[in-house]
Queue: 2 jobs
Job 1
Amino acid sequence: MRRAIELANESVQRGGGPFGAVIVKDGQIVAEGSNSVTLLCDPTAHAEVTAIREACRHLDTFHLEGCTIYTSCEPCPMCLGAIYWAGIQRVFYGNTRRDAADIHFADDFIYEEISRPLDQRRLPIRPLLRDEAQESFRRWMEKSDRTEY
Amino acid sequence: MRRAIELANESVQRGGGPFGAVIVKDGQIVAEGSNSVTLLCDPTAHAEVTAIREACRHLDTFHLEGCTIYTSCEPCPMCLGAIYWAGIQRVFYGNTRRDAADIHFADDFIYEEISRPLDQRRLPIRPLLRDEAQESFRRWMEKSDRTEY
């Protein structure tokens, strides 16, 4: 965790957002990340997402079984989603989503939105052409050599 | 939406997951994406995240104001989080999170987990060293030339 916090501090100095994360496997750091949204023009380049992508590259896998992530702030819904998809098994965090809200980051707002039914969100989200979209799911299920995850 | 569905179908054929997305601005497609998790060994390479990264590269921005995303399936929490962070203003989706659950994708499970209080989730998530982590947030607020988003 101290390394994650150090990455967050270094990130502020470099012009990135105040967030850092490290991924640990078998007692060793396998990847590090810091928030580079504005530096890279990539709204998905949060510390945790960056560390997950780096760990997967490093370990040549899309599933980080047996890994723990230490992040300087509670993961936002995007990063928490990425943590689930990556199969990371434990999370430690420093600052909370409310601490992040106090310095004007939208984490807490996004948590509220995502938990709401679709028709009660501020962001308009509407169904369209579900019948046609089903075709890709049918093809997926019919594909005998599909790689599931 | 038809192009997003076509991308999903093509993705299945290519060995990726059955998901496609396009981002539209001023009536023009500015980016496309399809699910490449297993092909790229990147658990964050969902169709929407891939399209958002591409749109930001293409438009040289980290904020996709005035953009609409068409995705062949309701965005998972990771992708929906990315959509909020990117500032996308409208979402249209084909298949639902329950359709995705029917073909063994974890979207619905992750929605349930993310909406729960931290101590009621299956994934262990614990606070650690908050006092020390606060330092990066203090430095951020003291930085007069910070780029907010």
Job 2
Amino acid sequence: MAKLTQLIDNEVFQAYATYATVVLLKMMMMSLITAYFRMTTKAFANPEDAASFGKGEAAKKYLRIDPDVERVRRNHLNDLENIVPFLGIGLLYALSSPELSTALLHFRIFAGSRIFHTFAYLIPLPQPSRGLSWMTGYVVTISMAYKVLKTALHL
Amino acid sequence: MAKLTQLIDNEVFQAYATYATVVLLKMMMMSLITAYFRMTTKAFANPEDAASFGKGEAAKKYLRIDPDVERVRRNHLNDLENIVPFLGIGLLYALSSPELSTALLHFRIFAGSRIFHTFAYLIPLPQPSRGLSWMTGYVVTISMAYKVLKTALHL
Amino acid sequence: MAKLTQLIDNEVFQAYATYATVVLLKMMMMSLITAYFRMTTKAFANPEDAASFGKGEAAKKYLRIDPDVERVRRNHLNDLENIVPFLGIGLLYALSSPELSTALLHFRIFAGSRIFHTFAYLIPLPQPSRGLSWMTGYVVTISMAYKVLKTALHL
């Protein structure tokens, strides 16, 4: 049990735990935003969901694709595609004994880039705002991957 | 080596390992269900897949979208969106020294909610069955995130 | 701090760290391939992206679905569906004290199967090339899940 406590007592690991949780909560928020847009625009993917808003023929017209809903869904999928690598590589990076300040720099820039990316996607801001925020998070993840492979390479 | 053994010997960590594996296996099963529906309804996304069922023009008619296949795929994507946060936050939660009974309560409710969610999606059950099962898993994950941030906050 | 160093000094864990990073980098590469195809075929999902290539009506014609882009996106989603279980189950497997040689066998076959799967999807190779490479990675993940549940089962 002592070992577990020591893992979470390590400052780099605490920083990872904090920022990983923050970006996952941000990603989870996309589900609520999708639900909000589906309800306000009445655009559903499943007949049983549309049925809450009308019966029979009336329900069918709510089975449709709405551009705002699709935008939120693309944002959510982009989160998955980028936050999953951060979770995996970031965990291994946190275990590879980086300097606390360097680790914090990586985690903060990544979290900041994903939060900015969400605003850039949903407002939407003109390009290349979204492209650059995506690339920032991408480069941070590559930088952590380089440290992991330098520390732990065992092919 | 001793340290690794001690990590997996911790009861809370064992519980996490068990339930994380169970929900991941459940999610992996969605691939088999998709394959089953694609083959029985003959609805494929790739020309090279349809080619196994007919040549030339005959193959083209199998390149189509089937509502049952799309339902399984939406269920699979919903799993990804919800099980990824559980994996990440649940791991950090398991390392934050929760009571075993509290941890088991979280893991069991989450796994149960995702299994029920799958039945609610695929049968399908009338709403709000699916909505409530989704929300149950969502709230469990938020509760674990709260414990992680309370234990390890390091911004 | 010593404990963290010891975790990453464990050879099985190093092997996991290496192969998890490799498959995540491979998955991240799909984003670049998608961007490349979107730009060369001029097929965008967002009006603000198409706006870089033309104004007003000219931009609208770039808001379209291209079969090559969709193929890369299906490949990317398939990566997510299969690499997420590998990350989670593989981490727990690495902590369940497997033999180094057995662990390396699992990790190498999984990484190889996903790299081959990408070539089979994007060239594309005739079936069952892609199907078999997918199934190989799937079976490896199930085998690791079996070891995890045998070592750590705590329901």
